[in-house]
Amino acid sequence: MLKLGVLVSGGGTNLQAILDAVESGRITNAEVSLVISNNAGAYALERAHMHGIPAVCISPKSYESRDEFHKALLSELQNHQIDLVVLAGFLVAVPPMIVGAYPNRIINIHPSLIPSFCGTGFYGLRVHEGVLDRGVKVTGATVHFVDAGTDTGPIILQKAVEVQEGDTPEILQRRVMEQAEWKILPEAIDLIANGKVMVENGKVRISR
Length: 208
Hints:
Order of helices and strands: EHEHEHEHEHEEHEE
Helix content: 25-40%
Strand content: 15-25%
Distance between the termini: 19 Å
Largest sheet: 7 strands, mixed
């Protein structure tokens, strides 16, 4: 059974999608064993509590240095023997210390079709604002492994979503979540939990 540690900064809609997928059987051989937020007021922590899942706030503000914060984060993951770290709207950069401790065992959901609208500064509504400002017709979401860069790790799954006339960043954000994020994040976790994802020469190979 793969033990998931889900890191989230806000409401936790992607966390809920994972929990629903576990309960419905769309995710097998995996369970959410820990939820961590950098934000004490994150509703994601309440979602975890309602499901009887250990949930903690580890905030950079509580530590004298970023290094101490990173050590606390890594220690919490290791204390719960987490197998796969899932970044589900976690707005804190994951340091090399944690990437090195979990090689090809950290995944992230990004609300665009990488390599478009990703990298430093592209998060949350800013991604969808960029999509609309550029006038592209198709956007989507990407699940990828996390490496030392920003949104540069090997891509696991992507799903396209149509941009519609009259979209606002908020409307587009919701459509991308509903049509892409909440579908491919659970799917990627299920594939990994069942040994169907391999990384070879920096690229992902999926066996179905």
